[in-house]
Design brief:
The protein is of the alpha+beta class and 121 residues long. It is built from 5 helices and 3 strands. It has a 3-stranded antiparallel β-sheet. The radius of gyration is 15 Å and the shape is globular.
Length: 121
Amino acid sequence: MAAGNTMMEARTQALSEIFERSVKYRIISEGLSLPEVPDEVIARFPNIQAGIAGLRKAGFGILVKDASLGGRYPVMNVTLVHPKDQGVFSSYGAHPRLEIALERNDRTAAGPRARRIGRLS
């Protein structure tokens, strides 16, 4: 089940959720290693780049990975590494537009969990 402002938006959201969950399951169950997204690609999206820079400035390690499994699925992965204990929080985001897939990760990673983690440092 998914919602959107239009039927097409709801379908896109539903398919994105299916891709995200399926890819995440496959990556974990098969122990797949993901390639890093080059800085040049991230630089095409200034808001994303600024969010990453802010997290790094706060001391977090951040890994941005291509979870598309060879370009077959519109899925990205972002992993935050806590500066003190090296604990990790990994999130996945899916959408046909790369920027939106990254934003979904950024919002997840930089949301309430990251703020709570930041207060612990």
